[in-house]
Amino acid sequence: MDNLWEQSLARFVKHRRGDRSMDDFRRQVGITQSTVFRPEQASMSITLRVLQQILRRLRCSLPEVLPGVCHGCPHHPTADRPQ
User: Fold this and answer.
1) Position 30 in a domain
2) pLDDT tens-digit profile of 57-70?
3) Cβ pair 62, 69 in contact under 8 A
4) In a domain, 71, yes or no
5) Which of 43, 49, 53 is closest to 10 using CA atoms?
6) How confident is the model at residue 19 (pLDDT cuts 50, 70, 90)?
7) How many whole angstroms separate alpha carbon 6 and alpha carbon 38?
8) CA 7, CA 2: separation in Å to the nearest integer?
9) Quick one: how far is CA 68 from the chain centroid?
10) How many structural domains are present in the chain?
11) How crowded is residue 6: how many other Cβ atoms within 10 Å of its Cβ?
């Protein structure tokens, strides 16, 4: 696993799934079990559409899943804002 974004997504999915089975988690998120497995293992990339669905169903934002990716953009909580 040498891709930082894939590693971050894998940690996030594992954390949010917790002790639930992949089947229970995939039902909540509305994706297939293999689609949950791939990012959790950082074995394959997922589409932006699937990422958007995961974010929407889990009520979270991209910076929560991929910390540092949006650092410095105007919508990131740590962005420098004019006083």
Assistant:
1) yes
2) 889 888 888 876 66
3) yes
4) no
5) 43
6) very high
7) 10
8) 8
9) 13
10) 1
11) 19
d(CA 24, CA 19): 10
Residue 72 has, within 13 A of its CA and on its CB side, a CA count of 2
Cα–Cα distance list, 11 to 17, 24, 42, 43 (Å): 10, 18, 9, 13
- Classify residue 31: in a domain, yes or no: yes
User: Which pair of structure tokens corresponds to residue 63?
Assistant: 């910076």
Is residue 42 assigned to a domain? yes
- Residue 53 structural domain: 4-65
> CATH no. for residue 56?
1.10.260
**What separation in angstroms does the CA of 36 have from each of 40, 64, 71?**
6, 17, 26
**The overall pTM is greater than 0.70:** no
- Contacts of the segment 65-70: beta carbons below 8 A, 24+ positions apart: 65/8, 65/9, 65/12, 66/5, 66/8, 66/9, 66/12, 67/8, 69/5, 69/8
Q: In the chain, how long is the greatest CA-to-CA distance?
A: 47
